[in-house]
Design brief:
Mean pLDDT: 93
Strand content: 5-15%
Radius of gyration: 23 Å
Number of helices: 20
Structural class: alpha/beta
Helix content: 40-55%
Number of domains: 2
Largest sheet: 8 strands, parallel, barrel
Oligomer: single chain
Length: 504
């Protein structure tokens, strides 16, 4: 039997008004079954200039005293961003409205969810990060002083969007940071995050002796005005925790954390971000920038995991999270690093306890240290486990972790691996409709609808190439077997006899 190939079209699901229209990819399989897949405008390579969908929403609220999505949620006001995020979240997996705008507002108001969307990033298509919702995945891109450049990083952004990144962090160092970030922001329909201390160090040419609060504050202000949606700030790295870090095998492995620690040592002073946290919150609230409270003391190896430095910083971050919540600033919490499998749950549980259920955002965690070149796998193992426990967003790790700056291909592999980890967690959590795509894949497999299987996969081109490479030429069109078992030993074919007898 020959099946027709699946087709795909972009559709929009509208909200309560015409200016809330959320894009999806509607996949029509060869049996006429329809599956909705999440997307964003910028994932379309033909989109040269992104629509500023939020511009009228932002303009209409200019005179209000509320500044942030948290402000509005606490005041009981449903914003267009909340409605948009609810539609995205609901139809990501199924045909039903699983989450209402009120559901989103409730979680944001409680500090259990965030909607990162700077008022100066109107191209950003709102999404929600929180334990109640689907697990999100962040992709890191960014040039360095010794590798990559403008074209390469824009290509990585495009690759990130193509393979489903929910947010992207620009971790650029070296020259031309401002111009590159501007290009990334204007080309990105997903939230963009940064680590401002990187640019601060660049502005003082690497001299920590002149890296002062005034320099750091100006960088934060400039990036907020430019449109950055969330900042990683290592404000919980307190001076009294430094001796604990010094006892480690690997010390401080966070790039931002090590810079902040160097500034503290050079000035013999407390963490400048901690000392001036109120001023940081003022800037963030004015532009609705979310704070990603960074784990500057995250463990860089299994040997340093879950020590006094890591957990002491987590407790400090929890106090800062409460201050954010009280001041109308959205925040979420960064998490480890390298953690053995048996202590992954412990990290999620302590974060919820110390940080008052603020969304957790973790790098993996990596559950072993012995796989340079395959650390996207070691981290996805830990990522799936901690996301199942309640982590809201996973930061991808690429195959080049610990070795080199990621290439566009590394970005692809890291994203696919972590989208799998996130989806596995969503299935485990029993999210409404999360299993629909998996069930469609099972039906396609048993019916040997190969092209439907490819279309339903995270990387259709790769799936097709693997399948086609070992198939005989005469069996190139919808054969009822694959090269693993061949026609005689295929369990799917043999099972038909069982079904014919018993499944009546």
């Amino acid at each position: 039997m020959t099946f027709k190939k699946p087709t795909e079209q972009k559709i929009f699901i509208k909200g309560s008004s015409d200016d809330v229209a959320v894009p999806f990819r509607e996949l029509t399989l060869s049996n006429d079954e329809k599956i909705l897949l999440s997307t964003v405008e910028g994932a379309d390579p033909s989109a040269k200039v992104l629509p500023k969908i939020r511009a009228p929403w932002i303009s209409s609220r200019k005179e209000r005293k509320e500044k942030t999505q948290l402000d509005y949620a606490k005041a009981g006001i449903i914003t267009k961003e909340m409605e948009y995020a609810a539609i995205r979240e609901s139809y990501k997996y199924g045909p039903d409205m699983a989450f209402t705008a009120e559901d989103v507002a409730k979680e944001v108001a409680a500090g259990r969810a965030v909607i990162p969307c700077n008022i100066n990033h109107p191209e950003c298509e709102p999404m929600v990060i929180g334990k109640k919702f689907s697990v999100k995945v962040n992709a890191n891109i960014g040039a360095s002083a010794v590798s990559s450049g403008y074209d390469e990083e824009i290509a990585k952004l495009r690759q990130s969007l193509k393979f489903g990144a929910d947010t992207v962090m620009d971790l650029s160092t070296g020259e031309g940071i401002l111009e590159l970030r501007e290009a990334i922001l204007r080309a990105s329909p997903v939230p963009i995050g940064t680590v401002p201390i990187y640019e601060a160090l660049e502005r003082v040419h690497g001299d920590t002796s002149i890296l002062t609060w005034d320099v750091f504050r100006q960088v934060v202000l400039d990036q907020a005005r430019q449109g950055v949606d969330y900042f990683t700030i290592h404000a919980g790295l307190r001076e009294y925790l430094m001796p604990y870090a010094a006892k480690r095998v690997l010390g401080i492995v966070s790039r931002g954390g090590s810079i902040m620690a160097s500034v503290m040592l050079r000035h013999d002073a407390e963490n400048l971000a901690y000392e001036h946290f109120d001023e940081l919150m003022e800037i963030c609230r004015e532009y609705d920038v979310a704070l990603s409270l960074g784990d500057g003391l995250r463990p860089g190896g299994i040997c340093d995991a879950c020590d006094k430095a890591q957990y002491g910083e987590l407790e400090e971050i929890g106090k800062l999270a409460l201050r954010c919540r009280e001041n109308g600033v959205q925040c979420f919490i960064e998490g480890p690093g390298h953690v053995p499998l048996n202590r992954v749950y412990e990290n999620q549980d302590l974060e919820e306890k110390y940080c008052h259920d603020a969304p957790f955002y973790t790098l993996g965690p990596l559950v072993t240290d012995i796989a340079p070149g395959q650390d996207h796998i070691t981290s996805a193992i830990g990522g799936a486990l901690i996301a199942y426990r309640g982590t809201s967003m996973l930061c991808y790790v690429t195959p080049s972790e610990h070795l080199a700056l990621p290439t566009a291909e590394d970005v692809k592999q890291g994203l696919i691996t972590f989208k799998l980890a996130a989806h596995a967690a969503d299935l485990g959590k029993g999210l409404p409709g999360a299993q629909l795509r998996d069930d469609a894949m099972s039906r396609a497999r048993v019916e040997f609808r190969w092209y439907d299987q490819f279309a339903l996969s995270l990387d259709p081109e790769h799936a097709y190439e693997v399948w086609k490479a070992q198939m005989p030429e005469e069996c190139a069109h919808e054969p009822s077997f694959c090269s693993m078992c061949g026609p005689r030993f295929c369990p799917m074919r043999l099972n038909r006899r069982i079904k014919a007898k018993y499944d009546k």
